[in-house]
Amino acid sequence: MTTTDIAREAQSQELSPRSSGTLPAVSSGSLSAYLDTVQRIPVLTREEEVMLFSEFGCTGDVDAARRIVMSHLRYVIYVARGYQGYGLPLEDLIQQGNIGLMKSVKKFSLEHKVRLVSFAVHWIKAEIHEYILRNWKIVKVATTKAQRKLFFNLRKQKERLGWFSQEEAERVAEDLGVKPREVIEMEARLQGADEAFDVVRAEEGDVAPSWYLTEGSDEDPASQVEMAEEADAHMAGLAVALESLDDRSRDIVESRWLGESKVTLKELAAKYEVSLERVRQIEAKALQTMQPLVATA
Question: Model pTM?
Fold first, then answer.
């Protein structure tokens, strides 16, 4: 659906015009009242929109910016309703969309030669997308650009195709410009559901993860993940630190500290035809150089 369609559909829902000086609040208890209030706010004409943006751009008139935002709240509602299938409260989707709308007003320029709604719809969707990705599951399901594209488009594809075969996954991947492997991975993520660590009311046959995962701080799953992440970060920092050394210094450090068997200073002195003291100096300087790089990893 184009922004023109969105504008036409939202404007068709307008009730009797009534101006308002403050931004209506969105809450679950007053959602109906909010929707009714927003639909009563009159839509700006092109001339009014240009005039208000001119005032806002030249003088920073906050009242002009408020009138612009107020007149476009109906479009946020219309866009937000399209994301109700993700199981999140409509009022929260609207609130996030309003943030995107206000950002678009700040970024908009009359030089774009388009109405604000055409520009704002992308900012509104971006804020709603980010909110959905943060809150749809406990574990974030999409972090890369390709995963985000799949998350918001794969559901539409699955309504027609059900479970993907390899051929269907390849076709969807081609349509969305991603790899088939990423399609299959995202499908698995969408099918997975959050599971409570402890079952409050256990039915017969229910098994909670807390029943079979090991106990104790040393074997706690969260602690294991944390330690693994710390180890990965340390190894990444170590690799960066080693890259900062010259070839001789790197070889001395690796031979002395990172090999299966520790090479002696005497062996390294013979290898590089220098004194034992010189090898010790090179080693100390290399470790001093590496320390801040490893510490900040």
Answer: 0.48
The answer to whether 107 touches 123, Cβ cutoff 8 Å, is yes
More confident residue, 229 or 195: 229
* Average pLDDT over every residue of 47-70: 90
Q: Interior CA angle at 46 toward 42 and 49, to 5°?
A: 70
Highest mean pLDDT among 47-56, 170-179, 206-215, 286-295: 47-56
Q: Which two tokens stand for residue 66?
A: 């408020």
The C-alpha torsion from 53 through 56 and 58 to 59, rounded to 10°, is 160
What pLDDT is recorded for position 179?
78
> Can you give the residue ranges of every domain in the chain?
3-135, 145-191, 222-295
Q: Residue 13 is encoded by which pair of tokens? A: 């829902």
The residue with greater pLDDT, 30 or 5, is 30
Please tell me the distance from the alpha carbon of residue 266 to that of residue 282, in angstroms, as a whole number. 14
Consecutive H or E run containing 113: none
Contact between 128 and 96 (Cβ < 8 Å): yes
Task: Give me 219's structure tokens.
Answer: 């074997």
3-state secondary structure of 226: helix
Q: Which amino acid is at 276?
A: L
User: Which CATH number is correct for 3-135, 3.40.50.2300, 3.40.50.720, 1.20.120.1200, 1.20.120.1810?
Assistant: 1.20.120.1810
